Amino acid sequence: MDSLRLAIPSQSPTAGAATFLNGAKLRAWLDTLPLANPTKTGQEILGALRLVNRATAPVNQRFHFLEQFRPLVADITDILHKHYASAAIPLDDRNRVTANLGHALLGEMAYGYKAVLLETTTTPIVEAKRNALVASALYAMHYLARLLVDNYALYSPEPPSVWLELHQIYRYADYEDFASSDLPAQGGRHSDVRSIDHTYRRIIMLALANPYHLMQGEALRVFSELDKWAVHCRILPLAAATSPTGQLYLDLDSDDPPSYAPMGRQDIYPANGRLLDVSGILPVLERRNKDLLMSATTETGQLTLAGRKLRNMYKRLGEAWGVRVERLSERRPRSNPIEIAIGLSAAHHFASHGAEFAPEADELALRQRKAVGKGNSLSLIAENDTPWLHEDQAQRLAAGIVQPRTSQFTTDPVKDKDIWVKIYSTQAHFETKKANRGNTLTFNNTLCQLQDESRGGMAISCRKGHGLRLLVGEIIAFKSEQAPTVDDWSVGMVRWLRSDAQERLDLGIGLLADDTMAVAVRGVKGVGKDSEYFRSLLIPKLDPTEYPTTLITPAAVFDVDSVIFVNTGTDVFYAQLCKLMDATNSFSRFQFDIVNAQ
């Protein structure tokens, strides 16, 4: 086969590298590292890696040097990743510095093992150096794959040439018949990284999982799960001069990730192509979901919070790895300004035309006009206060003598507490209300540029300086100049994100509804029972007693079979949540049935 095309830094004699290439001196230097400070340690290791990777050195000394650093780099990059794994995108300056350090460490480790691999392949392969060849190829692929995982986790573009190098290493290992070889145990311990074939299939499956569509933190979680699942991805030969039309395929001579060749594309004939069969992973996901329903439940039989997050992730993976279909509608280029508002609270604010969020006062007014659910505990005021039955209750509520428990989520995901923690933290709510008491929350909308659209959604670009911090799965309210009326706000969700070094933000919006009704909901029965009022959206904007509608609520508050009290400001009703339609780290969307008073 052709020679490997792998990029490494140019190398020259460097006096300072001798310290790190001498075994005794290297061990003494490693003992001086400030391991309690992972950032400082990472910077020290990065300096050593950069020095040696650009120095000429005997291949055995270079390999030994890298092997000494490998466990340290694994620990440090894992620690660094936790600092920014769930941060809003684009990263703030502090998280960006941390992320850049982690990426640089992975990149330099890949450079080092690629240098060993290239030098090892320049001479005939003999048994004495076969282990070093297999190890250098495997770890070069491992660090290239981890570099991709980190970029996916931050919704950054795939680094140039990484896919080309992954394909090249796999192709070479396959040609030399060691792609499936595991490293021999050393010192009684097996390597923490399995074969080249296994690592390659893991990163292929992650790329096919629509990584830019995953929630924050899920890219690394899915890559970890794929350590057990990757065996179900089959890489099959593609006959010469054959088109992979209608199938998933790889072009091993390209810098492209795995792709789907749509029906009708007869111009695809990769000279070194492979077909992919991922159908075997779908039954695995189904079994994993069943196991989850058996193990991750509370005493009442409900899924735990962690269990619900996993269930939602598996649902998205099943959709990504499932049967591929052609686009139902063509994407049409557009170049129009579009207003967007980020988050459920902001969408609620603009959908209600900026009305004050005072659902308990609205409930009081409604109950004074008609008896709704007489004899039931509809109020969140203490029972011994006989709520809504005294004429002075409205005055007490307005004066602040009785504090309404209404949700006050901020719209800044950077400053706000993680919603999964906040919903279940009474203290967090108390502190937020205390800070906001007497103040009015502000909600902002931002002007971006519409790039293209289809029947199911659109692509939007926001330039540097927009000030946005986003999460995949966030609710978006948007309005363009083509809106039927000036007050019409459509509702969608962030399906994918990409952020470049210039902090330009490209996002895909999946359309949920052309219009929406701002409502308030609180739990009555099941998961979320006795909750406060939460800002929520009813979509589309139709009478739910006459037409099928769905309800968008904050994430993790309610679940299927929960009974909730819905307050539209002009009417109230009870609803039982019957089917989960969408679930992200930011919101849940349910179908529901209207039921009698509980």
Give your account of this protein's structure.
The chain has 598 residues and is of the alpha+beta class. Helices cover 37% and strands 19% of the residues. A hairpin with a 3-residue loop joins strand 15 and strand 16. Helix 6 runs antiparallel to helix 7 and helix 6 packs parallel to helix 8. About 9% of the residues have low confidence.
Which shape, going by the Cα principal axes?
elongated
**Unreliable stretches covering 5 or more consecutive residues:** 325-329, 375-391, 408-439
Residue share in helices? 25-40%
Number of helices: 16
Subunit arrangement of the protein: single chain
**Overall mean pLDDT:** 83
What integer value in Å does the Rg equal?
Answer: 28 Å
Using brief descriptors, characterize the structure shown.
598 residues, alpha+beta, 6-stranded antiparallel barrel, 6-stranded antiparallel beta barrel, 16 helices, 16 strands, 37% helix, 19% strand
What's the quick description here?
The protein is of the alpha+beta class and 598 residues long.
Helix-strand layout with pairing:
Blueprint: H1 18-21, H2 23-31, H3 38-53, H4 59-84, H5 93-120, H6 127-153, H7 162-175, H8 196-208, H9 218-229, E1 234-237, E2 248-251, E3 259-260, E4 273-277, H10 281-295, H11 305-321, E5 332-342, H12 344-351, H13 359-369, H14 393-399, H15 419-422, H16 426-436, E6 446-454, E7 457-462, E8 475-480, E9 490-499, E10 505-513, E11 517-525, E12 534-539, E13 550-554, E14 563-567, E15 572-583, E16 587-595
Antiparallel strand pairs: 1-4, 2-3, 2-4, 5-6, 5-8, 6-7, 7-10, 8-9, 9-10, 11-12, 11-14, 12-13, 13-16, 14-15, 15-16
Helix pairs in contact: 3-4, 3-5, 4-5, 5-6, 6-7, 6-8, 6-9, 8-9, 10-11
